[in-house]
Amino acid sequence: MNSVIENLYDLLSKEFAELDKIVEKNQDPCLFIELIRCIDYSFLFSYKEKEVYEHFIQLGYGRCLEELYKVNTFREDYLPIYPSAPEIQNWCFNLLLHYGKCQMIMKSLDLVKCGDIYIQENVPGHFQLIVQKGAGIEYIENKFVDNYFHLIHDRVFSEVNKRLEEREDYILKQLNEEVEVWREHYIKYGSTPEIDDYYFEKARVYLCSSQLFDDFAENDHFGQIPYGNFMLVLQAIIGVTLKHLAACELLCAKNHEVHIYDILTLPVVHDDFIEEYSSYLNIEREQLEEIFDVLTIDALNVSEHIKANKEFSPLFIKVGNRFVLRSVRGCLRTPIFYLQNELKRKYPKDYFKWINERESRFRGQLYDLLNQTRFTMVNRSVELNVRGIRTDIDAAIFDERTKTLGLFQLKWQDKFASDYQARRSRISNMVIKANEWVGKIVTWTSEISPKEVLSSLGIKGSEINEICVFVIGRYNTVFSNSTRDERAAWGSWYQVIELVSKMHEVASPLRALSEQLKTDRKCNERPEDLKIEFADFSVSYGCES
User: Fold this and answer.
1) CA gap 73, 82 in Å, rounded
2) Which domains does the chain have, with CATH numbers?
3) Which terminus of the chain, N or C, has fewer Cβ atoms within 10 Å?
4) How far is CA 409 from CA 29, 38, 82, 137, 468, in A?
5) Average pLDDT, whole number, for the chain?
């Protein structure tokens, strides 16, 4: 097995080396522009087999940009721009695609090491990666996040959305008057406070219904900057990006000589950005300088982001001395991932300080969600040290009507996206420890009287008809090919939100939640077979039958 992995690894290393030579040979500031243009265009517009290619492009983006920064020598105050050509677009697309294919296989070797995929080479140069049964359960939990976003958009912001829709035609008409062609191929437009405020409000809806940004409280400080200010700037950037997209569409509709490919990705002068946002948001210039640096990728921090193996989609890409490229993809896809990764890198002491305080906020949010007069809620973590059992209970809820007790372990961990190393850490650090916790809780509640259980929690009473044990993770709690203690109900926070939102007049809410968490978990559909071919070898993906 190890020799097969080493053989494939060597072949991939050669492929990467060839791609790196291509970048070195063609390194030019214009390649930065073409690269981000390709990234933005492929993100926004449909094309054949986009779902597959988009995944490759996402994986190849960081690796390609890192190599470009290594060889780039452009250090000027100006930035040359020119209209793109189809052959350049195809060249960039295929470069990203090839990097992405190599990167996907390299990541798959991590899954081989942790046992979710096994590898074989029955014919020399033809590798097979077989996904084991039970893989894909994380996909199901991620679907609950999507459903949560729809819930926020359609219910929480229903009135705001209605107001925005009523004003949309008027705002677009005003913006259309501002938009004009610049230097034959590009775009130029002004704005008004009315237009800016409209898109700032629209950005708030977008941010809340597409980004998981509540890992920190608004007054948690990173350096001297409150997290709330980072979020305000992020909202403003999203608003400006949405406005830019609207302006691009308006210009292309009235001038067919302008191609949207050339105007999506916008060069921004650093000082102009700081001045405009400082004035609009009323945030000190020094803070904005620091926030802007956090949101910008450059030659100094790109390798750290790639090494972290996290979701890679920077908002601003530095080119030369004065300019950055504003990426539509970076601003709209997962800007919160990039922001939080950089906060962790730049402010590690503050980051972990606030991480340690999330449990109490999680407990408060759970209690708010299940808030009913019938419940008694323990507003603290309860430490147990009884009969050799040492553990704690993060949250406890007692249903006075049905005498049902809910005992919760709450896990709020960092998002891991496609970071397989972090995934392995979740399995070893969370699942194993959570299983131990479930065992201790079941033992504790079975060895003492109901009155003693309630007394330990600070709840008056002597009768318990049923005990429901829960393990609730902020994002993922169940992982492919891992074993969990089925005496507890396991689920993600966003799954809990969805299930509770659908509960109406149930006799025992805690029991209903427990039962639904245990049954509402279907296996992912069998992934489609995939074959990636190179000049000297090929890699096929399949699934156990």
Assistant:
1) 20
2) 1-135+527-545 (no CATH), 143-356 (no CATH), 358-519 (3.40.91)
3) C
4) 51, 44, 56, 20, 12
5) 90
Taking only Cα atoms into account, the Rg of the chain, rounded to an integer number of angstroms, comes to: 26
Structure tokens given for 410: 């709450």
What integer pLDDT is reported at residue 526 of this predicted model?
46
The strand pair at 375-378 and 395-399 is best described as antiparallel
CB burial class (10 A; 0-12, 13-18, 19+) of residue 485? middle
Distance CA 99, CA 46 (A): 21
Q: What is the pLDDT of residue 265?
A: 96
- Per-residue pLDDT reduced to its tens digit, 39-82: 999 999 998 889 889 889 989 999 999 999 999 989 999 999 89
Task: Decide: helix, strand or coil at residue 472.
Answer: strand
* 332: β partners: none
Q: What is the mean pLDDT of residues 395-403?
A: 98
Closest CA to 261 of 58, 31, 86: 86
Give yes or no for residue 137 having a pLDDT over 50. no
pTM score, whole prediction: 0.90
Residue 68 buriedness (CB in 10 A; 0-12 / 13-18 / 19+): buried
Q: What is the DSSP pairing of strand 466-473 with strand 489-492?
A: parallel
Read off the tokens for 304: 């750290």
For residue 170, the surrounding DSSP H or E stretch is: helix 158-178
pLDDT band at 423 (very low <50, low <70, confident <90, very high): low
